[in-house]
Amino acid sequence: MPNTIIIGSGSYIPNRVIGRDYFMSSEFYTDEGEKIDKPTEEIISKFVEITEIETRRYIENDLSNSQIGYEAAKIAIQDAKIDAEDLDYIIYASNFGEVTVHGYVNFMPNMAARVKNKLGIKNRKCITYDMIFGCPGWVEAMILADNLIKAKAAKTILVIGAETLSRVTDPYDRNKMIFADGAGAVVVKATDQENVGIIAHNTICDNGPELCYLENNSSINKENDQERLYVRMQGRKIYEYALKNVPSAIKETIDDAGLSIEDINKILIHQANAKMDYAMIERLHKLYDVKDYDHAISPMTIQMFGNSSVATIPTMFDLIIKGKMEGQSFIDKGNIVMTSVGAGMNINAIVYRFP
Question: Structure pTM?
Answer without folding.
Answer: 0.95
